[in-house]
């Protein structure tokens, strides 16, 4: 099963317009958020709760929180996507702290069988999520991360191909990874 984003925010409306719709409680905002971010948000949640059905429930609860607390978004504290990820991540963590979750996890401690299809689907969702997160990096860092982690170049090869000092490449990649850790 291939996950594709049919439309992106840049194709439909600017992020500012989406934020405006959200602040006005316009239901199109929630539709746009679901259409454009649900796969990435679902993947964030799934990494924490490790159960598809539960992750879907947490995503739905998160969308309700996003809707109910839309006035708490502040552009000065980060991008809209970062805010959405934060809400979903916190909701997933909260879910793992419940007694019901812990009891369910204990009862599932039997060996699990994972199908190849589900692994492929999870990999696609993970790559989609990572692409959206990486797109928030400055262009010089985004290009280096793309070369290193998606195209498989070593830092030395990147430095040679881009005719940059190796130390600069290492520093920019390190800075990019630190930024990504702060987002995730």
Going by CATH, what is the homologous superfamily of the largest domain?
RNA polymerase sigma factor, region 2, helix turn helix motif
Q: N-to-C SSE series?
A: HHHHHHHHHH
> Rg, please?
19 Å
Major β-sheet profile: none
Distance from N terminus to C terminus (CA atoms, Å) equals 25 Å
Q: Please bin the fraction of helical residues.
A: over 70%
Count of helix runs? 10
CATH class category of the largest domain? Mainly Alpha
Low-confidence stretches: 1-13, 110-117
Which class of secondary structure composition applies to the elements? mainly alpha
Instruction: Identify the CATH architecture of the largest domain.
Output: Orthogonal Bundle
User: How many strands appear in the DSSP assignment?
Assistant: 0
Assembly category: single chain
- Beta-strand portion reads under 5%
Shape: globular
Mean pLDDT equals: 78
Count of the domains: 2
Question: How would you summarize the topology of this molecule?
Answer:
Layout: H1 9-12, H2 15-23, H3 27-49, H4 52-68, H5 80-96, H6 99-107, H7 116-134, H8 139-150, H9 155-162, H10 166-183
Helix pairs in contact: 2-3, 3-4, 3-5, 3-7, 4-5, 8-10, 9-10
